[in-house]
Design goal:
The complex is a heterodimer of chains A (282) and B (234).
Chain A lengths: L3 H4 L3 H30 L3 H20 L6 H21 L5 H22 L4 H9 L9 H20 L1 H9 L1 H6 L4 H23 L4 H13 L5 H26 L3 H27 L1
Chain B lengths: L3 E10 L2 E11 L4 E6 L5 H8 L7 E6 L8 E4 L13 H6 L14 H13 L15 H15 L3 E5 L7 H16 L3 E5 L3 H7 L2 E6 L2 E6 H5 L2 H6 L6
Parallel strand pairs in B: 3-7, 3-8, 5-6, 6-7
Antiparallel strand pairs in B: 1-2, 1-4, 8-9
Helix pairs in contact in B: 3-4
Classes of the chains: A mainly alpha (282), B alpha/beta (234).
The structure holds adenosine-5'-triphosphate and magnesium ion.
């Protein structure tokens, strides 16, 4: 347990808190925007699969004694997996969901075996699954990468908003009228992969995909236009993150689990509001 | 010269052929109706005309300067998500995207076009409403308006009247016929052979990989028409 005063006791602590907060907010923003497209395209399970693979990749980095370099190991691995899963999802022949389950459970299994071999404490494994409460894990490199990533995603969503809408709504129509949908899907996969790896550190690999799914689902309960869903999704997830982040810091809970719990409350709240509003309309 | 000409076209999914050796031409101003039972490959043919599916053999030649982004498309209903959060306006105007290249925002011209098409289909009153709360007939109109935003030269319609009541169906046929009279080439898939015989200029009938292709008049006197309409030869 910590009080607000302790949290902001020294300049050193303030620095850490602010840095973690910024990275968290940026990753939250990215995942909430990407999530709208992913959820509507029925790709949300891919986010889940990727985070499990990310867990495996971080474990690999730990086993190789290269924990400092873990971003550079896990980002390429997760990007390649994302592209692979996207191809899998597009082909009708393969049993996409079953293959996805194999990829994600396999990655988690191998990952935890690697953790065992490298003699990590079980609290480390727990942290990497549910998000670490320790603020020391957020490095400069996280800060730089997440800034670059979120700038890229914001530019994409502002300037290509109309195309993103069209491709998400009806991919065949967009393709038929000459929009490069493959490029967009690839971009979506790569950006999702990077977002997941960056967010995993703080949120934990079991929890990060919630940041993708929850905000979109929550805002779809009340918003009925695409633009509305995007804006609502971004705002809800940022607010939930701030609440969850400070609650976790002050109470010493796992960040990821706390943020997801706050998101869950928001989801239930929005569902109730949406339902009662629909009743009024009828 | 024809707008689209298919030469010995064979279409297949993963090696399993759906249509074999199909040849026909679509000319400027034609109203082609594609009929045939479920699973006979109508939607598959349309996908290949749209460039979404590569022919296994044979070729599709686009003539008279018809470019791919000059085709408007109304997909078969099942392919669209009915619970998508979007306003009617967002859906209709997204039809103009194909010809815009990399420009990020809708221009005044795009907006005017979308407005005009919405008025034409009398959906301008529900512009701000949510697509997911519309009735099936309204949704079809919205999608037709979107297709009309994509082009005025050619419309490909996959079962545009499926699930509509008789009144709305008749209205839909009238709208499509008017578009055709104003010079738009129409290719329409339909299960409604009577309507096809009434409105279309040409009929393509797919059946067990055999087919009939010809003008409406030829079709009415063919065996295909007899078989499907209970044998009352006119
Ligand atoms: N993506 C696909 N992969 C493999 N086979 C497919 C695919 N889509 C359609 N088929 C098969 O191709 C055949 C033709 O399908 P298509 O959708 O073109 O029929 P249709 O004439 O449009 O039928 P309907 O009247 O029901 O719309 C069917 O036997 C179907 O099983
Ligand atoms: Mg069909």
């Amino acid at each position: 347990m910590m009080t607000f005063r302790e949290l902001f006791a020294s300049e050193f602590m303030i620095n850490l808190v602010v840095r973690a907060l910024i990275v968290g907010l940026l990753v939250t923003l990215c995942s909430s925007l990407l999530g709208v497209s992913l959820v509507l395209k029925r790709f949300s399970m891919i986010g889940d699969g990727l985070s499990h693979v990310g867990f495996g990749a971080v474990a690999l980095a730990a086993a190789l004694n290269m924990t400092d370099m873990k971003l550079f190991i896990s980002i390429p691995i997760v990007i390649v997996t994302a592209i692979f899963l996207l191809k899998l999802g597009n082909s009708k022949k393969t049993k996409g969901d079953a293959s996805l389950a194999i990829v994600s459970t396999g990655a988690v299994a191998l990952g935890s075996l690697l953790y065992n071999m490298s003699n990590q404490r079980s609290s480390d494994i727990c942290n990497s699954l549910f998000g670490s409460a320790s603020l020391f894990t957020i490095g400069d490199i996280d800060l730089i990468l997440s800034s670059v990533l979120s700038i890229a995603i914001i530019v994409l969503f502002v300037f290509f908003y109309t195309k993103i809408f069209a491709i998400t709504f009806d991919e065949n129509f967009s393709k038929a009228t000459g929009i490069n949908t493959n490029l967009f899907n690839m971009l979506l996969a790569v950006l999702t992969a990077v977002t997941i790896v960056l967010g995993m550190n703080m949120m934990g690999s079991l929890m990060i995909s919630a940041l993708i799914v929850f905000p979109a689902m929550t805002s779809m309960k009340v918003c009925t236009t695409f633009k509305g869903v995007l804006i609502c999704s971004a705002s809800v997830s940022l607010i939930c993150f701030v609440i969850g982040f400070f609650a976790a810091c002050l109470l010493g809970w796992q960040t990821g689990a706390t943020v997801v719990a706050v998101n869950l409350v928001a989801f239930i709240g929005f569902s109730v509001v949406g339902k009662s509003r629909r009743k009024v309309l009828q | 010269m024809a707008l689209i000409s298919c030469k010995n076209l064979t279409l297949a999914y993963e090696g399993k052929s759906v249509l074999t050796d199909l040849s026909f031409d679509v000319k400027q101003g034609d109203y082609l109706c594609i009929v045939g039972e479920n699973g006979s490959g109508k939607s598959t043919l349309m996908k290949s005309l749209l460039g979404l599916l590569k022919p296994a053999s044979g070729e599709i030649v686009y003539g008279d300067g018809l470019r791919q982004n000059e085709i408007g498309y109304l997909p078969q209903q099942t392919e669209i998500q009915r619970d998508f959060p979007a306003s009617v306006w967002e859906v209709v105007i997204s039809g103009t995207l194909g010809k815009r290249g990399l420009k990020p925002f809708y221009s005044a011209k795009d907006k005017a076009l979308a407005k005009k098409n919405m008025q034409l289909l009398s959906i301008d009153k529900i512009k701000r409403q949510s697509y997911q709360n519309l009735s099936g007939g309204q949704q079809q109109r919205v999608l037709l308006a979107r297709a009309m935003c994509a082009t005025t030269s050619m419309l490909l319609l996959d079962e545009p009247v499926a699930g509509l009541d008789p009144v709305v169906t008749a209205e839909m046929y009238k709208i499509i016929k008017e578009l055709n009279d104003n010079g738009t080439t129409v290719i329409m898939i339909s299960h409604d052979i009577a309507a096809a015989a009434e409105y279309a200029s040409h009929i393509l009938h797919l059946h067990n990989k055999h087919l009939f292709y010809g003008t409406k008049e030829e079709y009415i006197f063919s065996d295909f028409y007899c078989k499907f309409c209970g044998g009352d030869k006119k």
